[in-house]
Specification:
The complex is a heterodimer of chains A (about 260) and B (about 280). Chain A has helices at about 45-55, 75-80, 100-105, 115-125, 145-155, 175-190, 200-205, 225-230, 240-250, 255-260; strands spanning about 1-15, 20-30, 35-40, 60-65, 70, 85, 160-165, 195-200, 210-215, 220-225. Chain A is of the alpha/beta class and about 260 residues long. Chain A is globular, with a radius of gyration of 18 Å. With about 280 residues, chain B is mainly α. Helices cover about 75% and strands about 0% of the residues of chain B. The radius of gyration of chain B is 20 Å and the shape is elongated. Classes of the chains: A alpha/beta (about 260), B mainly alpha (about 280).
Amino acid sequence: MKALELVGVDKSFKKRRGEVVRALDGVSVEVGKGEVVGILGPNGSGKSTLVRVISTLVLPDAGKVEVFGIDAVRHPKQVQRSMNRVSVEASFFKKLSAMENLLYGAKLYGVTSREARPRIKDILENIGFAQKRATEPMEHLSRGMQQKIALARALLTSPVLMLLDEPTTGLDPRSKKDVQAFISRIREAHDSSILLCTHDMGEAEELCDRVGIMMDGKILALEEPGKLKARYATNGRVPTLEETFMAATGYSVEEASAEGE
Amino acid sequence: MRGPIKPGWLVEMIAVWGYVQRNYFLTKRYFMWEVVWLTFTTVNTMSITFIGAGAAQRPGAEAIDIQEYMTFLLIGALIWSYLSMIFDILSETVQWERWEGTIEYTFMSPTSRVTHLLGMGVYAIVYGIIRTALVLGVAMLAFDLDLGNANYAAALVVLAVCSISLVGFGVVAAVMPLLSPEKGQQVTYIVSALLLLVSGVYYPVSVLPDWMQPLATISPVTYGLEGSRAALTDGAGVAQLWGSIWPLLVMGVVFVPLGIWIFHLGENYAKRTGKLKRSG
């Protein structure tokens, strides 16, 4: 069974002046069980809308969205149990401590404090987060530490599908490495399927079984990194993933990160 | 890592506790603000009650029972502080989480929206009772008012039923920020102000212009105040308060499911138009 299957998903938004923005245009993606699929794309390409549609926060205009064979539009509560999400903004109650935020997040998935505490301890150890800092308000923690707590929150609910929307954007190199290493361990230890949206070519190449390129709401290509690069080979020279991205989208990595939503 | 599968009702109850506990944690973290609001409410209640004392200095004051008038104002201020707090907490359910940036995480969790709103409602009622009791304690020390005849049990019954119907009212208002992230919350403040105007908080509904009085009949606060005042000043029992209780029961039966249904429609609208995303 596929962990995730999107077929022909469309989503448009009306802007203030009557302008219609097509955020998703016939998007079809599959993620197999235990597979990590990366989506590369400039800001505004539709990556975040894609994640929001899968996580039941945005209703698609057309198309099929299934999580482990269950229709996410018709049965959102059933699919919500099996997945969790980490977004570019580590969204927390800023005055509450990491521990309080984690305990609250766990309870929304039916996990009691008694069950959650030992899990939190294990997860925090795994991600190299000092236990004593877990009682500090989130607003006192660095972005990197907040993002580690966001990953811990997602993992705490034992998701079989993880949606990671630019989890390392804006992190310092050290925190980025830590978070990437943690994602690798999640994959190995928890047999989770992962959809990872990112700007980071190295991250995509290192962590993903298949990589897709998204532009203007469309998936332009979705293949294993080697095959994807081979597709854009010229004169027998296989390009880097960065060059492949530029060839497919017309954007450099810097432009992709800087383009406004 | 996955634990044993729990029955659905237990998962929902754990989530209700999650909302209550989260709000308790937030109240603790914003403790200084709690002190400020408690002081403000206490001073406000006392100021309004002193209006009654001031009436004794006005020409023709002999015709006024000053003690009765001060008690009337004190009860109005206390009950309004309690009921408006429930309405405010419920109506800020969406806006608060949008401000914190957590709304998407709450809305993508598998527990039901009824559970979410129930958790908010339970916290609002418990928090409101504690704060109002503290203000009442200070007011009783400050004013020598006779509540010796009060039927506190009957007043609590009226307030309990009124709280439920007001939760429904608050849930309806909570949908506003889903429909309009920029202006929705302001609308809920207007609804709150209108409830204060028409419900007879500091004056009898009969003094309102004729065209305004029908509005009082659809406000749960009107019946909550009538019943509480009768219980606290005249010692009326539950049977005598039936005239206030039955409209509140009807409103509870209508407003709570109506509120949840409207909230569901608002949530779907926000998900169709992408309005959950916006924060700040």
